[in-house]
Amino acid sequence: MRAWGRQLGFSQIGVAGVDLSAAEPGLMAWLSAGCHGEMAYMAAHGLKRARPAELVPGTLSVITARMDYLPRDAAPDWVAQEWARLQRPGEAIVSLYARGRDYHKVLRSRLQRLSERLAGAVGPFGHRVFTDSAPVLEVELAARSGIGWRGKHTLTLHREAGSMFFLGEIYVDLALPPCEPVTEHCGSCSACIDVCPTQAITGPRRVDARRCISYLTIEHAGPIPVELRPAMANRIYGCDDCQLACPWNKYAQRSPLPDFDPREGLGGATLIELFAWGEDEFLRRTEGSAIRRIGHERWLRNLAVGLGNALRATGDEAVRRALRARAEDPSALVREHVAWALAQG
């Protein structure tokens, strides 16, 4: 199965059991504290998220998969290059994972192909594939199946791959022997906690999504809280800071697939260039990309915040002109963020 996985672009395959009861108290406490923000789907299925056999009746084991997403041509000093982007206020920063093809599409099709290969070897079996698309405790399953351990930023970490990878699962009605979990190796390091621009990592392995830039720019539909806008800087879709600060990511692996190579316009473009996209161009440029799901309105909202921060930092008249061009945008959400941005300089 591991050999088939490698042929399909997966770097690691593991197996976990279905008893995740030890994770239930932490999940419920996080939800009760409201740390999931507007992500109602996080609470909608109750404890099915921690009970695979209730989510998919008949499930006896979970096959887990890791797929690295660092682009094939990532430079040896890619971390330094990403930090440097933050020092260029006019550059638009899209999280590394979202610069290529939508990972949901890539993983889902390949997990299905892995299931078909397994069925060819053992005969038909019940299964369902997931990749960040259903109430699944992905990091918990990854930790239990030897894929890695839960870092203090809550992402899965691997000693030889860092955290720059996606996770996928296949729920199966086969009783497979589980893999051994790996031990944690964060030690006393708090780099991810210390670097978070909005202090969203409130403690080891605890994130308040309501403060997280990834949540604010992707999941959050309304106005971005004014007090958090300056900390967003030029990040317009997601945030990689906690991963860039993690020492283990010096071992991050390049993807063997072309799918995660950056698309034109999503790696190194300016805020002004992207802010000029009309809705038709946005839809055309983001076809097959995870970015499309936020829609043009939120795209402009995020860019307006970035431009406001750039205006404060540089006083660039070109930035001011770009903002003024959308001062009367049909969207009240966009207009409010543009007005805020113009007030920054």
From TrEMBL:
Protein name in the entry: Epoxyqueuosine reductase
Chief location bin: cytoplasm
Recorded catalytic activity of this chain's protein: epoxyqueuosine(34) in tRNA + AH2 = queuosine(34) in tRNA + A + H2O
Gene Ontology biological-process entries: tRNA queuosine(34) biosynthetic process
Molecular functions (GO terms): 4 iron, 4 sulfur cluster binding; cobalamin binding; epoxyqueuosine reductase activity; metal ion binding
Protein source organism: Hydrogenophaga borbori
Domain (4Fe-4S ferredoxin-type): residue spans on this chain: 177-206
UniProt keyword annotations, A-Z: 4Fe-4S, Cobalamin, Cobalt, Cytoplasm, Iron, Iron-sulfur, Metal-binding, Oxidoreductase, Queuosine biosynthesis, tRNA processing
Subcellular location: Cytoplasm
